[in-house]
Amino acid sequence: MIKEYFIAIILGTILGLGITGSYFALHQNNTQQNTVEISPTPVDTQMSTQISVTPSASEKKSPINITSPENDSVVSTAKTNIKGDAKPNSLIIISTPSKTFSDKANSNGVFNVSIELDDGVNLIKINSIDLDDNQDETELTLTYSTTKI
Amino acid sequence: MFLFFSLLLFLVFPYQVLAETVTATPASDKNLTEEVREMVAKKVKEIQQNDNTGNPPSTTIPKTIVGTISKIENNQITVTNKNNSKIVTTSDDTVFIDTKKKKISINNLKSGQIIISMGYYNQYGNFEAKRIIITSSDAIGNKNEIVFGKIADISQTSNVLVLIPIKNKNTQYQIKTDSKTKVIDKDGNVLAVNKLKSGQKVIVVIQPDAKTANTFNVSQIITFDSNLNATSPTPTPKK
């Protein structure tokens, strides 16, 4: 009788250890999965790569980027310089309501074109034509006013 | 014996599950990366919507909001331009000018009028107008069209040439030249109009002719091929 009790206790202990072991193993598994998912280091690395390399088609910006002056600015002198970048060696054509100016972007695509504004609001059309005959256009609004604001 | 093997299986099984799920984590990591990419792209787009340059509006540079008045409420004017509405806030210091350059008050403004509002963005991104001028649509537009194309034909009897755009070969422009038409090459050298040839690639700056339909007046022609003889060099084109 004592022998049977002893066997039952051993079997019960083994069964208990088995259940406990299973529980901890499954729990550890879930914890590891969570740790992998929220780990910031690999995500950050891939995130920065994504921003600079592959914007979606709908978010691709115009090949012409105006760096100065800011759009919708009021300027107090008629002569101003339009600075920006486009495709390398593009021909840049800038049209104010009454005048047209042209120049070339350098081998890095950077351009700096001196223009003369009309009085008041100037809706400026900026076109670039690259070496592959691609034409792109962007607009810039500048207001020439000598009135102190 | 059977019980022993059953227990052994029961103990080993969870570790097999563990091994399988650990090898599956790269897929979930990839999904997470995609999710983060989408979130970042969305945030970048939101920031870019603040301004064309991608930066929030400057509070120190005087700015202009141009467009048609769509609503006037208290001291706020809603200005719409190309389906984009902006709110202009006025104050007691704001100066209002009509088309005859006379000072008026905000009460003289009406929906449908075209205005030029000059002022500054405050720290909260609200535009505070210092000066509002009533104007006309002609004063804020630009009728010039810049077309890059190939000369299809040059009339021998009139000063008209036909241009087919590179972008759309199914369209053609009838372009009238006159004594004011300036022809230059892409280096800025001035050329004579009669040096233009059929088949040549050119960039033209044209405006619709008010009198003749489907005809355009050209103010400037820039030759894209450098095979013509220049008459004199000019570093910066000026009118």
Please supply descriptive tags for the structure shown above:
heterodimer, A: alpha+beta, 5-stranded mixed beta sheet, 3-stranded antiparallel beta sheet, 2 helices, rod-shaped, B: alpha+beta, OB fold (Dihydrolipoamide Acetyltransferase, E2P), 5-stranded mixed beta barrel, 14 strands, disordered C terminus
Mean pLDDT across the residues of chain A is 79
Structural class of chain A: alpha+beta
The named CATH superfamily of the largest domain in chain A: Immunoglobulins
Order of helices and strands of chain B: HEEEEEEEHEEEEEEE
By DSSP, the count of extended strands of chain A is: 8
Largest sheet of chain B: 5 strands, mixed, barrel
Greatest chain-chain contact: A-B, 61 and 63 residues
Rg of chain B, nearest Å: 32 Å
Overall description:
- With 149 residues, chain A is an alpha+beta fold.
- Chain A contains two helices and eight strands; from the N terminus they run ααββββββββ.
- Chain A has two domains: 52 residues; 84 residues, Sandwich (Immunoglobulin-like), CATH 2.60.40.10.
- In chain A, the strands form two sheets. Chain A has a five-stranded mixed beta sheet, with no helix packed on it. In chain A, strands 1-3-6 form a three-stranded antiparallel beta sheet, with no helix packed on it.
- Chain A starts with a helix and ends in a 5-residue tail after the last strand.
- Chain B has 239 residues and is of the alpha+beta class.
- Among the domains of chain B are: 78 residues, OB fold (Dihydrolipoamide Acetyltransferase, E2P) (Beta Barrel); 79 residues, OB fold (Dihydrolipoamide Acetyltransferase, E2P).
- Helix content of chain B is 21%, strand content 37%.
- In chain B, the strands form two sheets. Chain B has a five-stranded mixed β-barrel with strand order 1-2-3-7-6.
- The termini of chain B are far apart.
- The C terminus of chain B is likely disordered.
Write the layout of secondary structure elements.
The complex is a heterodimer of chains A (about 150) and B (about 240).
Chain A: H1 2-38, H2 40-53, E1 65-68, E2 73-75, E3 79-85, E4 91-95, E5 100-104, E6 110-116, E7 120-129, E8 135-144
Parallel strand pairs in A: 2-8
Antiparallel strand pairs in A: 1-3, 3-6, 4-5, 4-7, 7-8
Chain B: H1 2-48, E1 63-73, E2 76-81, E3 84-89, E4 95-97, E5 103-104, E6 114-121, E7 127-135, H2 137-140, E8 145-154, E9 160-165, E10 173-176, E11 182-185, E12 190-191, E13 201-208, E14 215-223
Parallel strand pairs in B: 3-7, 4-7, 10-14, 11-14
Antiparallel strand pairs in B: 1-2, 1-6, 2-3, 4-5, 6-7, 8-9, 8-13, 9-10, 11-12, 13-14
